[in-house]
Amino acid sequence: MAGFQLSINGRFWVSTEGKDAWGAGAGGAITLSGRDPVRADSLEEATVVLRVRGCDYFLADGAKGYFLLEWYGGSDPARGDDLIGEVASYGFKDVFYVSQKAKGRVYVDDYLLWRSRAIEKLTDKCD
Fold first, then answer.
1. DSSP 3-state percent helix, strand, coil across the chain (nearest 5)
2. In whole angstroms, what is the distance from residue 60 CA to residue 73 CA?
3. 48 and 80 in contact (C-beta within 8 Å)?
4. Cβ contact 107:69 at 8 Å
5. What is the pTM of this model?
6. Helix, strand, or coil here: 105?
7. Contacts of 19 (CB under 8 A, 6+ apart)
8. Is 35:41 a contact under the CB 8 Å cutoff?
9. DSSP assignment, residue 76?
10. 116: DSSP letter
């Protein structure tokens, strides 16, 4: 499979990871092989800011607030990883970890939270 270029908020990433990588589709859509295209404006960019050892939940900080995510497979996120995905709605979502150049699967438990509320919810999940 040929490489691709992905642009979110004016930042670009290039990958040649193959069929499991993100790529730019027609009409401003972003596609992940085997999945339906996603409108680029529905994607959020966030950074993993808190991960508790022994717990599958983690916090990611985005431009609109914090996201409480549960890791469900694929690449295991680490603090400082940038991710891209449709994480501004509940449910299971595919994400792309930019620094790892790898995809993952998460469950969005909550989104667009204030910092204090996000930490409180993470603490409840990881006790």
1. 15, 50, 35
2. 17
3. yes
4. yes
5. 0.74
6. strand
7. 1, 33, 34
8. no
9. P
10. H
Give me 63's structure tokens.
């431009």
Q: Tell me: the pLDDT tens digits for 13-62?
A: 444 444 444 444 444 445 444 455 556 667 899 999 999 999 999 999 99
- The β-bridge partners of 8 are 11
Structure tokens at 117: 């509320």
35 vs 28: CA distance, rounded Å = 15
Half-sphere exposure (Cβ direction) of 80: Cα atoms closer than 13 Å:
2
CA–CA separation, 84 and 75 (whole Å): 13
Residues in the chain: 127
* Of the candidates 41, 36, 7, 46, the residue with the CA atom closest to the CA atom of residue 24: 7
For residue 28, give every residue at least 6 positions away whose Cβ sits within 8 Å of its Cβ, in sequence order, or none: 39, 40, 41
State the Cα–Cα distance between residues 39 and 29, nearest whole angstrom.
4
Phi, psi (rounded to 5 degrees) for 99: -65, -30
Question: Is 67:44 a contact under the CB 8 Å cutoff?
Answer: yes
